[in-house]
Amino acid sequence: MKVWSSDDKEYLDFVGGIAVNCLGHCHPKVVIAIQKQAQRLIHVSNLYHIEPQIKLAKLLIEHSFADKAFFCNSGAEANEAAIKLTRKYAKNHLGYDRYEIITALGSFHGRTLATLSATGQEKFQEGFEPLVPGFKHVPFNDISALKKAITKHTCAVMLEPIQGEAGVKMPSEGYLKEVRQVCDEHGLLLIFDEVQTGIGRTGKLFAYEHFGIEPDIMTLAKGLGGGVAIGAMFAKEHVAQSFQPGSHASTFGGNPLACAAAIATIETLLEDGIIMDNCKRMGKYFMKQLERLKKEFPSIIAGVKGLGLMIGMELTKPCTSIVNSCFEQGILINCTAGNVLRFTPPLIVTEKDIDRLIDVFEDIFGEIA
Ligand SMILES: Cc1ncc(COP(=O)(O)O)c(C=O)c1O
């Protein structure tokens, strides 16, 4: 949970590399896995079968809805792959003019041109126009807006089950189930961007498991490698078939080193269920403490939301100065959407760590109030 600056100041890390360091910093199992793999083989290219890549694919498929995996190096690349697979699938199965993907306002899907175009936030797009055509944005949690946006060109809906960069925006009760239903009725694919919500972050390995539905395609990155860069796209067999050898590729995607780190991360997360259980318990404890703080400082805190250890606290004012005050007091937190403090700590966070943060908040908010 801790990092130290070059002048030896200690920081308690509630950012966790923005939902990357799910096992904390330098977890011994991940470190050893990387060391061993580095001594054995670092890179060979996807011209050959890569043993750790196959093992990782099997591990994740065993624990998910998916039948096939594609590995890359980041969340944007994983989403780029999902967009390409969707277009190819639509051409093969739905018709040549079915290319449009509906995404949500407030979403964040990455910074390559296609994923930026999929992203429903103009502030990230400004200056990079013309954007890639074929994306339509509708308000999150508005099922009738989604239905109205479907045209004869639509082929898929792409959503984050919980919107991260929008300020930890939760789906309303039944929304994701209705989205699945609408997709089924219209023959559309459902893509879940679980780059931020995946790998245990919400208390289940994947966030979709909370909502009683399955997507057709899912993307992962962030926590997958426990700190090492790796991204992945997962799909059901009938969808995955639209990628044939040569359709899509990545030089470094699924390299032995990154896959060894990811295997160690997933195995450690799932081992005995201790860490996942900690995530659920600490998530509840954290929310309870923040709710208590909200009652104490109603003029400063507008709301608390989240699931597991993906938590947002909405303030009534911009939150940059709070992030800076915490930094001065040796605590790392993050501000998103202007006025939402976002907490994505390692899933090993303890009550003591949370209490320390709450004490610091008491001081800062007390002073402001
Ligand atoms: C939901 C979501 N999708 C995609 C991305 C992009 O991931 P990356 O920065 O690894 O390209 C992010 C990054 O914050 C994200 O939160």
Outline:
This protein is of the alpha/beta class. 40% of the residues lie in helices and 17% in strands. It folds into 2 domains: 2-25 and 273-368, Aspartate Aminotransferase, domain 1 (Alpha-Beta Complex), CATH 3.90.1150; 28-272, Aspartate Aminotransferase, domain 2 (3-Layer(aba) Sandwich).
Helix and strand content put the structural class at: alpha/beta
Biggest sheet descriptor: 7 strands, mixed
Which outline best applies?
A: globular
Radius of gyration: 21 Å
Small-molecule components bound: pyridoxal-5'-phosphate
How many separate helices?
13
β-sheet strand percentage: 15-25%
CATH-defined architecture of the largest domain: 3-Layer(aba) Sandwich
The secondary-structure element order is EEHHHEHEHHEHEHEEEHHHEEHEEEH
CATH fold call of the largest domain? Aspartate Aminotransferase, domain 2
The helix fraction, in percent, is 25-40%
Extended strand count: 14
How many domain units?
2
CATH class term of the largest domain: Alpha Beta
Query: Low-confidence segments, ≥5 residues, pLDDT <50?
Result: none
How far do the termini sit from each other? 30 Å
- Estimate the mean pLDDT confidence: 97
